Automatic annotation (TrEMBL):
The chain holds residues 30 to 167 of 804 of the full protein. Coiled coil: none annotated. It comes from Nonomuraea longicatena. Residues 4-128 form the CBM6 domain. It comes from the Bacteria. This is Uncharacterized protein.
């Protein structure tokens, strides 16, 4: 199945704002969280069935230091202090991918800044649920 895109500006935002002053984002803007530990963006993702999903976070980090973020799914930590590495500039967006299990129906995927620098700027989350294999044995 093709991934479904969830724009950060449409997610639940804690301690952050939607901005558009750095080019290259998808949708109408991106989320700039405060530069402290704790701000988060939480996407509500609907999965047609339970299974392993590929989560692709598009972000920018124009600093020279990692912006670590705790990634949780439905309250369970799936990536502790995931390093969102420098991208080379604020208008330079890259995608960082991990896999995590989703339940059927609604899932809450949250990225919480885990260090004092805060989160990177978030553009979107792409979610692709693994479908049944198209291979078969005759
Ligand atoms: C700059 C940049 C912001 C970014 C911030 C940060 O102010 O313009 O988009 O969020 O740095 O360090 O997080």
């Amino acid at each position: 199945a093709a991934p479904t895109r969830y724009e950060a500006e449409n997610a639940t935002i804690a301690q952050g704002a939607v901005e558009s002053n750095h080019a290259g984002f998808s949708g109408t803007g991106f989320v700039n969280g405060e530069n402290i530990a704790g701000p988060y963006v939480e996407w509500t993702v609907n999965a047609p069935s339970a299974g392993t999903a590929t989560l692709a976070f598009r972000y920018a980090n124009g600093t020279t230091a990692n912006r670590p973020s705790d990634i949780s799914v439905n309250g369970t930590l799936v990536a502790d202090d995931r390093a969102f590495e420098p991208t080379g500039g604020w208008p330079t967006w890259v995608t960082s991918t991990l896999t995590a299990p989703l339940v059927a129906g609604e899932n809450k995927i949250r990225a919480t800044a885990s260090a004092v620098g805060g989160n990177p700027n978030w553009d979107y989350l792409d979610v692709e649920i693994a479908g049944p294999s198209t291979e078969y044995q005759a």
